[in-house]
Amino acid sequence: MPKIIARTIAIACDHAGPPLKTKIKKTLEAMGATVLDFGTDGTESVDYPDYAEKVVQAILNGKAQMGVLICGSGIGISIAANRHRKIRAALCHSEETARLARAHNNANVLALGARIVDEPTALACVQAFFTTEFEGGRHQERVDKMS
User: Fold this and answer.
1) What CATH topology corresponds to 8-146?
2) Stretch (H or E) spanning 50
3) pLDDT tens digit string along 76-108?
4) 83 contacts: CB under 8 Å, gap ≥ 6
5) CA nearest 96: which of 72, 69, 132?
6) pTM of the full predicted structure?
7) Burial class of residue 84 (count of CB atoms within 10 Å of its CB; 0-12, 13-18, 19+)
8) Residues with a known catalytic role
9) How far apart are CA 53 and CA 59, in angstroms?
10) What is the DSSP letter of 83?
11) What value does the mean pLDDT take over residues 12-17?
12) What secondary structure does DSSP assign to 85-133, as a single string?
């Protein structure tokens, strides 16, 4: 198994994501990461921007190097995270998009849609995202323009 690129990963979801969040957390821990779980754990309706903020702040404050965010589509929670400088949340729907988000965009947050992506695909995204190094080079100039 390729080496994981982050020691500590923050994770959170809204009410659509607890079952997938649990599976991802176990996968990341099996890969050797420490996972900071910021909830939610139930199906009662909550506001995804609040949970995106928890992961973003953990990264910006240095408590985590990277993050995972999950909502129903992945769209809202990724938009909420991307409001912040230094955060590059990538909404991924395949192993290839997760790999490219890291390799070309140096994404530091993986966003997933629990109602869009099935569990095996989501776990493949996690594996690809957290084991792919940023290529730098020509991509660094573009990332610098975003951060």
Assistant:
1) Ribose 5-phosphate Isomerase B; Chain: A, (3.40.1400)
2) helix 48-60
3) 999 999 999 999 999 999 999 999 999 999 999
4) none
5) 132
6) 0.96
7) middle
8) 104
9) 10
10) T
11) 98
12) TT--EEE-SSHHHHHHHHHHH---EEEEETTTS-HHHHHHHHHHHTTPP
